[in-house]
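Minutes, project check-in

Agenda point 3 was the complex the collaborators sent over. CS summarized: four entities, 210 residues total, and the question is how they sit relative to each other. Sequences were read into the notes so everyone works from the same version.
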Amino acid sequence: MGRTPPHPEVSQFDLQQVLEALVDPVRRSIVTQLDAADEDVKCGGFDMAVSKSTATHHFKVLREAGLIRQYYVGTSRMNALRRAEMDEAFPGLLDALTTRQATGR
Amino acid sequence: MGRTPPHPEVSQFDLQQVLEALVDPVRRSIVTQLDAADEDVKCGGFDMAVSKSTATHHFKVLREAGLIRQYYVGTSRMNALRRAEMDEAFPGLLDALTTRQATGR
DNA sequence: GCAGAAGTACGACCGCTGTCAAACTTTGAT
DNA sequence: ATCAAAGTTTGACAGCGGTCGTACTTCTGC
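CS then shared the predicted structure for the full assembly.
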């Protein structure tokens, strides 16, 4: 592995794809956890109740939609929320999904 | 018919349900068309390329999520966007989906 | 080197959802 | 009364997407 997976550029962000990524509760939870975290989080560092292979799938969907950036550190894959870029492409969208009312906290 | 179909109250709005409603391109188009319209629009008044029965299905999903309010006028069913109520439940969400960037116009 | 940890890739399965056609209901107009 | 317009309901179908297990790859530490 070691190689960095492909990431779309901001100009290529697609609303349909972003919404399809965010509609899944597991993936939306990943996004809100990332938003609440101070640092980048490795794949195994999330609170979610699915198998590893399913988790990989979800991270891939998020990455291909442009919501997260992934890079390797040792055997761990780190995940960073692409906040600023998402805000640039779709202003207010992530804000609306990370509020107390939206997250239910 | 004649009877008004059931509508959820604001306190019952569910983000998951709302997102599932908005993730479909046909339904999101209905919402943006409603948002751009000055008046309520009857079911047949939308620009969409699906059969009538499919359209009925989409309106039902939107209504049950709380995104639209429906009422009869003669044989026509009118549709109104529940903007204020949606904004109250999930501030910024509809805004984010009705901008130029989001609608692609 | 070897074992373990961390993910990935690949198939398979299954349930959900968008789609349509056909038959039906209700209302308004002639 | 009849007929047409506007939606609804039901049933069927197809495709997609989330899920998992298993096998595989890479890297780290001993």
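Noted in discussion: The longest helix of chain A spans residues 52-65.
Follow-up: revisit at the next meeting once the mutant set is ready.
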